[in-house]
Amino acid sequence: MTQAHLSSRITNITGGGSDGWDVFHRARAMIARGLPVTELTIGEHDIRTDPAILDAMHAAARAGHTGYAEVPGTRALRRAVAARVARQTGVPTTEANVLVTPGAQAALFAAHIATCDPGDTALYLDPYYATYPGTIRGAGAVPCPVPTRAADNFQPRAADLAPFAEGARSLLINTPNNPTGTVYDRPSLDGIAGICREHDLWLISDEVYDSQVWQGDHLSPRALPGMAERTLVMGSMSKSHAMTGSRCGWIIGPEAAITHLINLSTHTTYGVPGFIQDASVFAFDQGAALEAAIAAPFRRRRDLALQILGRQQIVRAIPPQGAMYIMLDIRATGMSGEDFAMALLDEHHIAVMPGESFGQAAAGHLRVAMTVDDDRFAAALETLCAFAAARS
Ligand SMILES: Cc1ncc(COP(=O)(O)O)c(C=O)c1O
User: Fold this and answer.
1) Which residues does ligand 1 sit against, CB inside 6 Å?
2) Which has the least CB within 10 A, 147, 159, 197, 275?
């Protein structure tokens, strides 16, 4: 039987070739065979959602909030998101600026559908969160990576961006950054904002790690002059409240764009379950202390990592300023990130992500997720450093 035609839009989502997750898949296969593997691969907390949030979810469901919820998001959640962002950024924001989505991933897709016509060029900074190019392709646009440099600790430079901007439609950035742990500073963001204004680009700003900042301050580019009308911000309960499985995120943007994005939701997701949104409002009501408590293990492990790495000279850390990852430069070993990560997995049963999985700008690097308990994390890093020393 011949297969009926599938659209190139869907068959090309991954761009062909490896999905960059070979080490991860191999680690999972080893675990399935019963081998003990320390997994420092995916960006997920080693705690589960707070039981009090689950109680709120259950109570909301039992109270009957199990039917279709309002497609743009409940009034209470849109208001809570707007209040949080207005407080954090000083930019006047109301519920009309907020659309609730099933996670930031759905928001990223919607943002590209909203800003790019088929065939338009959508820029994104390399290294990048692994789904970015596929998300752009899925939206029918053409992904165009713009390299940042290890020598700059992956802070973007306007001069590197400028040659790509002419004729592009959008630029996707992520701060605090996955995979690098870099928090974009004011000069970097001023440079990016200048390019967006000059070339009439939409800025799509993924800020899902805004509650995980270890050094410096998180600055939302939406707060920069002339940017509120051309910026779409992605946020989510996933990382700030350890609610990855609840699939609750949002887009913040100009009211006119949000009105169109609501139409998109009506014709795609039809919103987010009401009991999940009620639980999210409850989570926000717990205030910043809950977010700080959820971020605390990563801050602690980041300090631990710096202590361990400070005792040797082979592996260099990109200064980890935010998010739940630490990016390591292993070029002194002469190995690629992929070869290093595979050999570390095979010989020591430690799984880390090769930098190459996140773009060519991160070649010769590793992304280490700080997502196992402190003792196992420290032991894994010690082994990684000893392995690097033996190979260099
Ligand atoms: C940079 C970045 N953006 C978006 C997401 C997706 O988040 P969500 O769970 O809200 O879809 C992730 C998840 O790892 C991420 O690291």
Assistant:
1) 43, 103-105, 129, 174, 178, 206, 208, 236, 238, 244, 249
2) 159
